[in-house]
Specification:
Blueprint: E1 2-8, E2 11-18, E3 24-28, H1 30-34, E4 51-54, H2 59-62, H3 68-78, H4 85-92, E5 101-105
Antiparallel strand pairs: 1-2, 1-5, 2-3, 3-4
Length: 108
């Protein structure tokens, strides 16, 4: 299992996990859900006290990935398989992302 912190404007909103079978789970932190001033990170992942589950990377996170030649360069320089979307997300969205959301790998 691999896990990442999901930050919204530098505050940790929740966690994104990749299970050993390749499926994904996203969950908001309890305090984030209870705070009415905190937004959802995406319309497709509304604030809720539940686990969102998907057999593939959630479209919101998938759309944060580089494409084309940028993807090839990032994968080559970081030795990431081009089909490892979670690895690519944790590498490319930790510092440089469009919008308020960043994804930071949790080291084991």
């Amino acid at each position: 299992m691999r896990e990442a912190r999901v930050l919204y404007k530098e505050e940790e909103a929740g966690r994104l996990l990749q299970q050993d079978d390749g499926s994904f789970i996203f969950l908001y932190h309890h305090d984030w859900v209870l705070d009415n001033t905190k937004p959802s990170i995406s319309l497709t992942l509304p604030k809720a006290q539940k686990e969102f589950q998907s057999p593939f990377l959630f479209p919101f996170f998938y759309n944060m990935l580089p494409e084309g030649s940028n993807k090839q360069i990032v994968c080559k320089l970081n030795r990431i398989d081009q089909s490892d979307y979670f690895g690519l997300l944790m590498t490319s969205a930790k510092n440089d992302s469009i919008g308020a959301v960043r994804v930071i790998k949790i080291e084991e």
